[in-house]
Design goal:
single chain; 216 residues; alpha/beta; Rossmann fold
Length: 216
């Protein structure tokens, strides 16, 4: 990772701490990092989870691959070097959102383990939850509305993960979803159960959502 080039920088701390923000939010700041092949269901699951968390009264923000590449990372292509920089920038944004006490959900292929570990290294030990959204390549291809896999196989798209570029699956993700056999609702329920079990969410938030809303 490149070092900061300017030496005349000093971090300016405000009066509002992350702990105060989290107390207001009634939950911790957290990054939920979805990784998997194109078409595995990362975006679909992250959208559904964000909706569920918001219904529970959580403060959330979702970062998605195409959305980021049309703005923050619009100057990057898909070379290995550009992929590294893409994930570095996303990791830094996720870090800012954690400091704001927000549960941020990132949905990116992020094919290289070292890059995902780089993003994790910006977080405290338990502020980063890696979610492997797992589906066989043939299933991902069958879900491809944009025809990207066909273009990749024909050579029209280069450096396409799973076809002409590698995907390094996580060795020990915090959560492993299998979207070939699990429905979206089942994936979301698995994630909510994990977040409650590990203390990221208070079960009272779930109860509030069950009563039809959150007050606070």
């Amino acid at each position: 990772m490149d070092k900061v080039k300017s030496k005349n920088l000093h971090h300016h701390n405000g009066l509002v701490s992350r702990q105060r923000r989290e107390a207001i939010n009634r939950h911790r700041g957290l990054t939920i990092w979805f990784t998997g092949l194109s078409g595995s269901g990362k975006s679909t699951v992250s959208v559904a989870l964000e909706e569920r968390l918001t219904a529970m009264g959580c403060r959330t923000y979702r970062l998605d691959g195409d959305n980021i590449r049309t703005g923050l990372c619009r100057d990057l292509a898909f070379s290995p070097e550009d992929r590294i920089e893409n994930i570095r920038r996303i990791g830094e944004v996720a870090s800012l959102l954690r400091d704001a006490g927000i549960i941020n959900l990132t949905a990116f292929i992020s094919p290289y383990r070292r890059d995902r570990e780089m993003a994790r290294a910006l977080a405290d030990e338990d502020d980063f939850v890696e979610v492997f959204v797992d589906a066989p390549l043939e299933v991902c291809e069958s879900r491809d509305p944009k025809g990207l896999y066909d273009k990749a196989r024909s050579g029209a798209i280069s450096n396409f993960t799973g076809i002409s570029a590698p995907y390094e699956a996580p060795h020990e993700p915090e959560v492993h979803l299998r979207t070939e056999t699990q429905s979206i609702d089942e994936c979301v329920e698995s994630l909510i159960a994990f977040l409650i079990d590990r203390g990221y969410l208070d079960s009272s938030l779930v109860a509030a959502a069950g009563r039809g809303g959150f007050e606070g």
